[in-house]
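Appendix B, record 7
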Amino acid sequence: MGPRTSLLTLLALAGLLAPSALRAGGFEIGDQGARALGRGGAFTVRADDLTAIAYNPAGLARLRGTRFYLGNRFGHASEEYRRAATLDWSGATHGVPAYLTFGPVRNAEAWQLLNPFIAAGSDFGLEDWSFALGVYAPAGIGRQSFPEDGPQRWMLSERETQILYYDVSVAWKLRDVFGVGLSLQWVDVPRIRMALTVDGNVSPGLVYADGGTFDIRARLQGSDHVGFSGILGAWYRPLPELEIAASGRFLPVWVDAESRLSLEPVHLALDQPIALSRDGEPARDVTFSMVLPPTARLGLRYVHRRGSVEWFDLELDAAWEGTSMVDAYRVRGRGLVADVLGERIPIDRITIPKRWRDTWSLRLGGDVTVVPGWLSLRAGGFWESPAAAPAYSHIDFFSGHRLGAAAGFSATFYGVELAAAYSWVFQMPVVVDEADSKVSQQAPGSPCTAPYDSTTLCDPHYPGRPAAAANAGTYLSDYHFVSVSLSYSF
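Structure tokens (predicted):
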């Protein structure tokens, strides 16, 4: 196949790389790609298939010929939240509050069946260059669903996040000593959808620990189709058996999803829906904002060769994610007002605090060649630090110290490679005391405002906070992933 034919084939495949609503996760858990997943994510240096566009685009320079890649990751997310017992002063009798306890709630959308990676690449007959196109969803948990009347409803009752990365990649190498690569990304967020319960109470000095007459279920749905970023990578081979590589996403992705907000009463039987307006005109539009942070990876790989065969390798990677940029999720109403039984509740700005920290991880993995050119086995594992301090824990993204173990294989028949891998990710339990909680119930109509110390407008039983703690409790989670891919090269 000549360069012109390869180009036409690549462009034809690119037309197929535009699914309308592939499901993807928010922030990542585990890894994409069967080879990378099977090595515990230790893939920065090796990066020897088309998933290199995401891990280290410089690895593309070592791929010869024309290649096609189709993969998917299947996941099962076991996520459980147990709200801590609390006192309900709104129902106090003779000064004695009610003591509330709660049962556990679990994510009903445990199965995550669509987490794809599709790519095509070619060297177009050039000795030192390689090019690729790809579309993939990040390795995340895309859907969550909890009981609408559950004790977690002040944080979340449902969430769906769809994110797609469209990549155009190029790589160049200097013989087999050094290589560089770049992936330019268009980031598409076809859908962000979430729902939670807010306290619509406007009475001064009153907080309902587990709901009141004026509870309102808020639903938000939006999208943002314009975001850009890039991944830059390089590798260096100082010795035949030793390789070093680095890569990273050098631009954060700012998501400003133009969204529609709807409000419905939980307990009140209203004659008409809750009216939303701006400057006296009906309106429902709001903007939901968040950021996908930059990342960096550094890896060291040892390779044992005999002749032209790599019999085994061992790679150690360190990774960083700048999640300290995620200080909050924000909903901007730009003067939006809700009318509930004659009470006008402003929805100008709602902030869900995150105050995340940068995360670090160590990943160790390798491959063993069983039958050269036919069969390889791999295994690996990793540790990753939590993004959220316990006080800011939230069920939209279970965050604790993570430990992962993985194994997989590749089998090649006449230019077609079948790769499969399994990974188990265990997250250490997180316990949040009510006194330490930094996430409160949303009460946009409350007259109690920062610094929440008014003796007349704020409930004296909740000093320094606008409402009851929303995230106190115990967070338990573990994840199972299976990744399968088919690749063809010629």
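Remarks on this record: The longest helix spans residues 3-14. Confidence is low (pLDDT under 50) at residues 1-26.
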